C-alpha cells in the first residue's frame, strides 16, 4: 500500500509538467462555437452513410476534418482517453447542402435574415446554404453588393453560407462587370426568365443567357435558371365577375400553366448544345431550379442530357409532398412559382427523382412577412409567393418519400453529394476522409407534430405550408466543420460558421 502511494507521488511531477505544457487553447474549440468542446473526437453509430454505403462503425474528427472512418469490427479506441459520442441506432450522414435559399439579408431581414435562417437550417440538419441573390436589398448583381452580403454574414451564421450572384440584363451585356462579380467569389449565377417581383432584379431573355455563357465557361461556374416564360393564356381570368374565385388555388394554377416551364426550357436547350465538348460554351453548365412540370418540360431536359448537354435539374420537397387538389381555399401559404401541380404530376416527379432524371433537391426557402401572404384575405392572385420550409426539408423528404422506399444513400445523393458538386464545394457533401466534418445525426422513426409547441427557428413559422403536418425524422445533432452547432433543441451560443467564397 505504502509503495503504491510512493509510486503515485513519483508520478505527480510528470502530471503537473503535462498540465503546464499542454496547450488546451489549440485542442479545444471555443465553447461559444460548439456544444462539444473537443477538437478531436469520434462519432459512433450503427448507421453511418458513406459514399461506399451505410456502415456500422465510427468517424474520427480532428480540427474540423474527417480523418478516418472505421468499420465496427476494426474499431478499437480507448474511450477513457478519447471522446466518443455514440449515437446508437441513429443515422449519421453528411449534412444537407441547400443550394436554393432566400435569406433576404441585408435589406429585408424582417423577412428572414442570416441568424434566424441559419439557426433554422442547423435545426433541420442543413450544414451549408447557398443564398440566392434576391430578395435581399440590394440584390447581389455586382461586386459591391456581394461585399455587403459577406459583411452581413460574418459572425452571424450558424451554418456555412455561400452566395449565388445575379445575372441581369445590365451585367449580361457587360463582360467586365460579370467578371468582377465572379472574381469577387460568387459560386455561380442565377437568372429569371420571368419578372422576379424585385425591382433591381429584372428578368433575362435567352439572348442575355447566351451572352453570358462563354464567360461562365471560362470560370467553370454554373448558371441557375428560373425557367418560366410568359405565354398567352387560353382564357382570360374574370375574377371580377365571379367566374374565377381568387381564393381558389385552381384559379392561381391557371395563371402559371406548365406550358410556361415548357416554353422556357425549350429556349434554354437551344443554348445548352454549346456546352458540349467543342462548343462555344464548353465548360459552362446550366441548372434548372425548382422544376414542377414532370411531363413535357422534364422530357426536354432528359433529351438534352442524352445528347451530352451540360444540364442538371432540381425539384423541391413541396412539389413532392403536396398536390393542387388538396390545397384549401384561401390557404396562400401554398402559393409559389412555379406552382404546385396535380397529384398525377407529383407521382411523375417522384418517379423521375427515383430514376435519376431529377438530379437533386433544394428547399427554395422563400419567406416574407406574414402580412404579405394575405392569410386573412386568402387571395392567391395578390399574395406573395414562396414556400417557407428551411427547417423541415429533411423530415419532409423522408416522410413523403418512405412510401416510395427511398434510402439513406439516396437522401445523401440528392441533398449532399450532388448539391456540393453543383456549387463546387469540393470538401463537402460526403462523409469521406479529408472532408470537412459537416454531419447531421437524426432518428428516422421518431414522429412529431409541427404545431405551435414545436420549436421552429424560422422568423415567421406561421407562413409555412408544413405547419400542422405530422412528420418523421427528428434531428438530434448538427456538426459544421466539426463544431456541434445544434443539439436536441439547443444552438451553440455564438454563430461561428463561415461565408464561402469561390477562390
UniProtKB/TrEMBL annotation:
Q: Where is the signal peptide?
A: 1-25
From what organism does this protein derive?
Anisodus acutangulus
Going by the UniProt record, its keywords in alphabetical order are:
Hydrolase, Metal-binding, Signal, Zinc
Q: Its quaternary structure? A: Homotetramer.
Q: Give the source's domain of life in one word.
A: Eukaryota
Q: What is this protein called?
A: allantoinase
Query: What is its EC class?
Result: hydrolase
GO BP, one annotated term:
purine nucleobase catabolic process
The record's EC number reads: 3.5.2.5
Primary role = Catalyzes the conversion of allantoin (5-ureidohydantoin) to allantoate by hydrolytic cleavage of the five-member hydantoin ring. Catalyzes the first step of the ureide allantoin degradation followed by the sequential activity of AAH, UGLYAH and UAH which allows a complete purine breakdown without the intermediate generation of urea.
Amino acid at each position: 500500500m505504502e509503495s503504491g502511494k510512493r509510486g503515485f507521488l513519483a508520478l505527480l511531477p510528470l502530471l503537473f509538467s503535462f498540465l503546464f505544457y499542454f496547450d488546451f487553447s489549440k485542442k479545444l474549440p471555443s465553447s461559444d462555437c460548439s456544444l462539444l468542446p473537443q477538437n478531436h473526437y469520434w462519432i459512433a453509430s450503427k448507421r453511418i452513410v458513406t459514399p461506399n454505403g451505410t456502415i456500422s462503425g465510427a468517424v474520427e474528427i480532428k480540427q474540423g476534418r474527417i480523418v478516418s472512418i472505421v468499420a465496427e469490427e476494426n474499431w478499437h479506441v480507448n474511450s477513457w482517453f478519447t471522446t466518443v459520442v455514440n449515437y446508437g441506432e441513429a443515422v449519421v450522414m453528411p449534412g444537407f447542402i441547400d443550394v436554393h435559399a432566400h435569406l433576404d439579408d441585408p435589406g429585408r431581414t424582417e423577412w428572414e435574415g442570416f441568424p434566424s435562417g441559419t439557426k433554422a437550417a442547423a435545426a433541420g440538419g442543413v450544414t451549408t446554404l447557398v443564398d440566392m441573390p434576391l430578395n435581399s436589398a440590394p440584390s447581389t448583381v455586382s461586386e459591391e453588393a456581394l461585399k455587403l452580403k459577406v459583411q452581413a454574414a460574418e459572425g452571424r451564421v450558424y451554418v456555412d453560407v455561400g452566395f449565388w450572384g445575379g445575372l441581369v440584363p445590365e451585367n449580361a451585356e457587360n463582360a467586365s462587370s460579370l467578371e468582377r462579380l465572379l472574381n469577387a467569389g460568387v459560386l455561380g449565377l442565377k437568372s429569371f426568365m420571368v419578372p422576379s417581383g424585385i425591382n433591381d432584379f429584372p428578368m433575362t431573355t435567352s439572348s442575355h443567357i447566351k451572352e453570358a455563357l462563354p464567360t461562365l465557361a471560362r470560370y467553370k461556374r454554373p448558371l441557375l435558371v428560373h425557367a418560366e416564360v410568359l405565354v398567352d393564356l387560353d382564357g382570360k381570368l374574370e375574377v371580377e365577375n365571379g367566374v374565377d374565385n381568387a381564393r381558389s388555388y385552381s384559379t392561381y394554377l391557371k395563371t402559371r400553366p406548365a406550358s410556361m416551364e415548357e416554353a422556357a426550357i425549350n429556349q434554354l436547350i437551344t443554348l445548352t448544345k454549346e456546352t458540349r465538348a467543342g462548343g462555344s460554351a464548353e465548360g459552362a453548365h446550366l441548372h434548372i431550379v425548382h422544376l414542377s412540370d414532370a411531363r413535357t418540360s422534364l422530357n426536354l431536359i432528359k433529351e438534352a442530357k442524352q445528347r451530352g448537354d451540360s444540364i442538371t435539374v432540381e425539384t423541391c420537397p413541396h412539389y413532392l409532398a403536396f398536390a393542387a387538389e388538396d390545397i384549401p381555399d384561401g390557404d396562400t401559404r401554398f402559393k409559389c412559382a412555379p406552382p404546385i401541380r396535380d397529384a398525377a404530376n407529383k407521382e411523375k416527379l417522384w418517379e423521375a427523382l427515383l430514376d435519376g432524371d431529377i438530379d437533386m433537391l433544394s428547399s427554395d426557402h422563400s419567406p416574407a412577412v406574414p402580412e404579405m401572404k394575405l392569410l386573412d384575405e386568402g387571395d392567391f392572385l395578390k399574395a406573395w409567393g414562396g414556400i417557407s420550409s428551411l427547417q423541415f426539408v429533411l423530415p419532409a423528404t423522408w416522410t413523403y418519400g418512405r412510401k416510395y422506399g427511398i434510402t439513406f444513400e439516396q437522401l445523401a445523393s440528392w441533398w449532399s453529394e450532388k448539391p456540393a458538386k453543383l456549387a463546387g464545394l469540393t470538401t463537402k457533401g460526403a462523409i469521406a476522409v479529408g472532408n470537412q466534418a459537416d454531419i447531421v445525426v437524426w432518428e428516422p422513426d421518431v414522429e412529431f407534430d409541427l404545431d405551435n409547441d414545436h420549436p421552429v427557428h424560422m422568423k415567421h413559422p406561421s407562413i409555412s405550408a408544413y405547419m400542422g403536418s405530422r412528420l418523421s425524422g427528428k434531428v438530434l445533432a448538427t456538426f459544421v466543420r466539426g463544431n456541434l452547432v445544434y443539439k436536441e433543441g439547443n444552438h451553440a451560443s455564438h454563430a461561428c460558421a463561415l461565408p464561402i467564397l469561390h477562390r
